[in-house]
Amino acid sequence: MSTVAETTKGELTADEQAHLSDRAKGERRLGWRLAGPAFIVMLLVTLYPIGYAVYLSLFNYRLTDPAGKKLVWLQNYITALTDSLFWQAFVTTLVIVIVTLIIELVLGMAIAMVMNKVVWPRRTLRTVVLIPYAIVTVVSAFSWKYAAQIDTGFFNHWLHTLTFGGFSESYNWFGGRWSSLTIICLSEIWKTTPFMSLLLLAGLAQVDSAQEEAAKVDGATWWQRLTKVILPNMKAALMVALLFRTLDAVRIYDNPYVMTGGANKTETLSMLVGTETVSRVEIGMGSALAVILFVIVLIIAFIFVKLFKVDLTTSGRS
Amino acid sequence: MSNRAKNGLGVVSIVIMIWTLIPLLWIVATSLKGTAALGDSSQNVLGNFWPKHISWDNYKLIFSGGASDLFVPALWHSIIVCVVSTVISVVLATFCAYAISRLDFPGKKLILTTSLAVSFFPVIAMVTPLFNLWRQIGLFDTLPGLIIPYLTLTLPLSIWTLSAFFQQIPWEMEQAAQVDGASSWQAFVKVIAPLAAPGVFTTAIIAFFTAWNDFVFSSNLTAQHAQTVPAALSFFTGASQFVQPTGAICAAAVVVTIPVVILVLFFQKRIVAGLTSGAVKG
Fold first, then answer.
1. Which of B48, B132, B167 sits opposite A153 (nearest CB)?
2. Which residues in chain A touch residue B271, judged by CB atoms under 8 angstroms apart?
3. A82-270, superfamily in CATH?
4. Is the ipTM of this complex over 0.90?
5. How confident is the model at residue B256 (pLDDT cuts 50, 70, 90)?
6. Which residue stretches, if any, does this entry annotate as coiled coil (chain A) (predicted)?
7. Which of A152, A244, A252 to probe by mutation at the B interface, max B CB count within 10 Å?
8. B167 closest CB neighbour out of A50, A126, A317
9. CB A12, CB A20: distance < 8 Å
10. Is the Cα dihedral B78, B80, B85, B90 positive or negative?
């Protein structure tokens, strides 16, 4: 660990070199001493559990039957990947991710553009839009659940009035898979669009307004300006917002848990891991599912970073 | 911008704000409904939305009535666990971010990449092994048993936002102060600390939100002695096992929401800066 980085900098005497490399060494030691604790805590509380999950996933292990713990290698994975319940949860998660992402992107972009241009009520809008981001997910889930329920809710009453009686007041949103997922997605969109909007607003602020003006003078339509000038200029922000939202949506748990508890085939992958571990105490199988979920998340992150060449650790960090 | 465009955007803004506020108003409205009014639209106005007669019964129920055994301890757990984990992670992250933005040492990129990867972990993937381990070493259903996993939520976030903040600080000022005769410590306290404080503070608020929001850890790693409010909410039961305690849940939901809404109202600008500087810098 004694490479001398400083010597390449210029003409130095031997004495100065020794002094500088000492200083560099000291800086390294100090750097690790300051950064180390945070790094170690992070590793201990994440890498250890993940490693342990990988290990446990190779066992047939029920918490209620510790003596029956048996090494089964990849059997849990094979069982999981050939189980229709797994694929059902996979499809549910995929639907939620795709639907919420598309709507949030469009809605989030629209809101960001309004926030960027609006004159009045500028401050109030920015504050109000931020609120759902800060709301506890469980609270928002309960709010949407009660709003959609037949007896306690107002959705059906409002829809009934808006459609001049066309919409049945006794429609049961939580009676089927797709109607339940509609409410789950709506709640998710309400809760997380602000996050998307804020990241996109930061991106919009980076768009060169002179370029936009020039395009306007040249007679570009609003759509042309959006797709040819604005969006390409805020590519980094767009990608980061999409990446963070995708990874978040893939891990969705609280919302469907509170609203349906997984009924009507609305169980997501995260919920599947939870039920397997905590309700059924099938630690081995639960761990295998957790590892699968983690691998899915890693693949998505990898695809995003490669595809869009977002270097999250260095790009643009001055 | 023309006046018409200005007003048009104003109208759109109001529509956005209504969409944002309705679910919140709805939770407040439901918490103010008496048991009888909950499912009886004739006792409410605006299509079963707002109660005709405001009732405080649900708040009495959660603070002094039957649900208080569950709610009041949960509220304390939430406050203690979130404050402690926020403080720990912000302190650790401040040192870490200072080192990353100020010192030259190998492994900087490793730390940033690791903290990013950690924030991508599906939280539920950590629950399985922690559940098992916590039971073995007696951390299951304890406050430290929640504080430790909460660090995985708050630390990566804090390291990233703080590194972004610290990179914007003009560190030359510290050296200038030292040249003028201040000791390193004086230079740090007098010059750098005041510049860094807003960033540290913003990070603390965002970290607090994240911990306050957690449901997965709290609902899976606790039984009854350390449950936080989000988890306790989903375990509320009504007068009988078969009655959903809708009103009480809404009252509790309003109570946990108030602190975060107040924080948002006061620190709106800083939170936006923190969120965006942590994630996007072009």
1. B48
2. 130, 134
3. MetI-like (1.10.3720.10)
4. no
5. very high
6. none
7. A152
8. A317
9. yes
10. positive
pTM of the model: 0.87
pLDDT in tens, B168-180: 888 788 778 888 8
- For residue A278, the chain B residue with the least C-alpha distance is B220
Nearest CA in chain B to A28: B105
Query: Rounded CA gap, A115 and A125, in Å?
Result: 7
> From the list B89, B151, B276, which residue is nearest A198 (CB)?
B276
Asked if A300 and A250 touch (Cβ cutoff 8 Å), the reply is yes
Nearest CA in chain B to A314: B109
Which residues in B lie closer than 8 A to residue A158 (C-beta atoms)?
Answer: 47
* Cβ <8 Å between A241 and B108: no
In tens digits, what is the pLDDT along chain A, a chain of 318 residues? 344 444 444 455 566 566 667 777 888 888 888 888 889 888 888 888 888 888 888 888 777 777 777 787 888 888 888 888 899 999 999 999 999 999 999 999 999 999 988 887 888 898 899 899 889 999 999 999 999 988 888 888 899 888 888 888 888 899 889 999 999 999 999 999 988 998 899 888 888 888 888 888 888 888 888 888 888 888 888 888 888 899 889 999 999 998 888 888 889 999 998 888 777 778 888 888 988 998 998 898 888 878 776 655 443 333
Q: Nearest-CA residue of chain A relative to B29?
A: A143
What gap in Å lies between CA A229 and CA A209, rounded to an integer?
10
**Residue B220 CB contacts under 8 Å (≥ 6 apart), including other chains:** A274, A277, A278, B124, B127, B131
Q: Which residue did the predictor score with more confidence, B108 or A189?
A: A189
User: Does B254 score more than 90 pLDDT?
Assistant: yes
CB proximity B213 to A under 8 Å? yes
Contact B111, A313 (CB under 8 A): no
The Cα of B60 is separated from the nearest Cα of chain A by a number of Å equal to 19
Name the minimum distance, in Å, from the CA of A264 to any CA of chain B: 19
Q: Which of A91, A187, A195 is nearest to A139 (CA)?
A: A187
Chain A residue at shortest CA distance from B251:
A139
CB pairs under 8 A between A and B: 325
Distance CA B139, CA B145 (A): 5
Cβ separation of A138 and B47 shorter than 8 Å? Answer: no
Alpha-carbon distance of A55 to B257, in angstroms, equals: 40
- Confidence (pLDDT) at B23: 94
Closest partner residue to B257 (CB to CB) among A139, A240, A318 is A139
CA angle B266, B270, B274 (to 5 degrees): 140
SS3 A27: helix
A123 interaction partners in chain B (CB closer than 8 Å): 268
Residues of B236-270 as b/e, b for ≥16 C-beta within 10 angstroms? bebeeeeebbbbbbbbbbbbbbebbbebbeebbeb
How far from B260 is each of A16, A47, A140, B139, B214, CA to CA, in Å? 55, 31, 13, 28, 14
Q: Test B253 with A139 for CB contact under 8 angstroms.
A: yes
DSSP A104-132: HHHHHHHHHHHHHH-BTBHHHHHHHHHHH
Domain spans, chain A: 82-270
